[in-house]
Write a structure and sequence with these properties.
This protein has a domain at 44-75. A two-stranded antiparallel sheet has the order 1-2. The radius of gyration is 27 Å and the shape is elongated. It contains 2 helices and 2 strands. With 87 residues, it is mostly helical.
Amino acid sequence: MQVTSPVRAPLVLKKEENGQKRPTTYHDITEDICRQVEAPPTNPRWLMAMLLSLVALGWGGYTLYRTWWFGLGEWGLNKTVGWAWDI
């Protein structure tokens, strides 16, 4: 059952294949959606962004380790000026 709206264009249109139009199937929709997730990332900008985020994650882990191991004195809280900047 297909409901035609007078306000907007149909969401699922016919696909063109070998010069012939055929109706879009659920398989076509599934392939269009899953292709984005299943395809390997080939864009170098994506790889650089992933590397940068992994470096930031590692740096954050290192700073948490330093805070837990050495305590809040690492933050410079033992100084009288600006003692509450982390609040």
